[in-house]
Amino acid sequence: MFSTLSSFVYLPALTPISRDLSVSITLMNLTVTSYLVVAGIAPAFIGDIADQSGRKPVYILMFLLMLAANLGMANLTRWSVLLVLRMILSAGASGTVSVAYGVVADITTAGERGSFIGTIFLFTTMAPSLGPVLGGILAEKLGWRWIFWFLSILTGGTLVILALLLPETQRKIVGDGSLPARGIYWSLVSPKASRSTRQSQGDAEPREKRGCRFPNPLTCLPVLMDKGSLFSILIGALQYVNVMTLQTSLASLSIEIYDLNYLQAGLIYIPCGVCSAVSAKVTGKYIDWNFRRTRHRLGVEDARSVGDIEGFPLEHTRLEGAYLLTIICALTTVGYGLVVEFKTMTATLITDYNTHRSATAQAASNLIRCVGAGAGTASFEPLIRAIGSGWAFAIYAILVLLQVPLIWGLKRNGMAWRSRNK
């Protein structure tokens, strides 16, 4: 949630910040682009740290970075400082989602994963509507600096809660939850693995001594060499480029065209956020239900072993209904609530493919989608001025349709690719 909230709470304030700092909207959009570019690169480091050293230390590091950046932005006076601090904020915030996927892989089986990932998306998709509303209220009533004071208070409070209550779930450190967590891994709440997860992962092994090494961002590249993971990531990236570009432009275009104030510009994000949040939760439940239905139809008794069965139609199970959603999203490009259906599907499938390196796999996904979204947001304003908003939105609607051949290829060949990878 902090990754998307930190990004979207800022959007209604682009216009007043540009006026106070005497810079153009194009330069302000570059602060959004830089945020997205760093958001694509930083998780490659963070995911590797989380997979080798645990989830909790990484969370604490990320929240410290966010707290420092937000405190700095609450007191800034120059655009160049804003640009640098937004990149620092992104370095901290962007990894929270990939580490969350690592936690899900630690504590769930294949048959439970859809609901958990749907819950993650419930919070991450609430932020695109909640963030601009909060940002609009704060910018209109108290001034744009209070956006960053609000984020500082929220981040600092969450940091204290994480340090005291967040249990470590990395199985190299706590096994199935039976190994005691020490030092920075300690919390007031001990992790308890479910019976099904313990059975699927085996008994806890003695804790191994872990050597420290500098995080290697290139560890995410082998994920991109796996065709199934690559196709899933590209599908999600096309969605993200479309949504992020459109939502970045929405507030500034509404203020310019309809003469809205900052609060009203924030309120226009509510419909997509509500629909997205409901859709994420419902889709997660649907994915788990469809998984169980397919398992029973094929006579597979042990749900925990499905991810390791070469002949199980994992791609068809996860992506059922994807073609229809692609067409609807292309025809109603600004209907963001429908787009999130796919996000839950593809995120679950990426985790299915990479249960042993889940945080790193999501880092690879972040790399592709955030670099694409950064390019999209940087080019959208010049594109509107060159050909008009109507044709610009039409181009992004066409971009959505590029998902169709990717979905077809993944459903047709995904099982064979998994078999060869075995």
Structural description of this entry:
- About 75% of the residues lie in helices and about 0% in strands.
- It has about 425 residues and is mainly α.
- The protein has one domain (about 1-175, about 215-420): Growth Hormone, Chain: A, CATH 1.20.1250.20.
- Helix 3 (about 25-55) runs parallel beside helix 6, helix 12 (about 225-260) packs antiparallel against helix 20 (about 405-420) and helix 16 runs antiparallel to helix 17 (about 335-355).
- It starts with a helix and ends with a helix.
Unreliable runs? 193-207, 333-341
Order of helices and strands: HHHHHHHHHHHHHHHHHHHH
**Alpha-carbon distance between the termini?**
35 Å
Quick one: how many beta strands? 0
List keywords for this structure.
422 residues, mainly alpha, Growth Hormone, Chain: A, globular
Write the layout of secondary structure elements.
Layout: H1 2-8, H2 14-21, H3 25-53, H4 55-73, H5 79-93, H6 95-107, H7 113-141, H8 145-165, H9 171-174, H10 195-201, H11 221-225, H12 227-258, H13 262-267, H14 270-298, H15 314-318, H16 322-331, H17 336-353, H18 358-387, H19 389-401, H20 403-421
Membrane topology: Multi-pass membrane protein
InterPro entries: MFS, MFS_dom
GO molecular function: transmembrane transporter activity
